Amino acid sequence: MKHINEMTRKEFESLPDRESWKKPVFFDSLVIIPGRARDLHESGFRLMDYIAIKDSKPLCKLSGCSDVLHLDGIGGFGNNWVEKYKGCPTMVPPKAWSIDCLKKSGLLRLWVNGHQLEAGNSLSSFEIYANKIA
Question: Model-level pTM?
Fold first, then answer.
């Protein structure tokens, strides 16, 4: 598989979908593919697809039906925050989210230093979670 900096948008779009919505996908960065002008969500915003990346190589497409990306879940409290914090947290440890732009495709890549990313379900809004690397 090619390095993500050498891939075209069309190559990203032709990647396979994730195996299952119920099976977790772990990766180190995420490429965001905005939908074409005809690909609209019922909200009126364009759909987006997301490519899981591990070691600068693509793994799979993650969504395709979402018009919103929630970093660390809706609210930003992380995965399973009710169990983790025993209720709504008053403070959540900060994370260093970063975005850059791939050389050939011009698509955006998102990552978090010192964290492994995990994909949430593929729904109207798409959630990813940053899990601290031990």
Answer: 0.86
